[in-house]
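Support request, please re-run this one:
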Amino acid sequence: MAHHKRKGPKSSRAGCLLCKPHKRQGAPVNIRETFSTLRKRKIAGEKIAEAVARSKTLR
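Re-run finished. Output below.
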């Protein structure tokens, strides 16, 4: 990729970044998360909740 030919930051040379807030410079980490990251976080939360519920039933 010809990175050396890119003039200026992505926010000035890219298309509309209003619909892509996770690609803006200086965006907080929780906004920059992509769909795959959110999906993994949701699945992990469900597994934790399931394990907690299972441990409560074993007591």
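The mean pLDDT is 77. The two ends are 58 Å apart (CA to CA).
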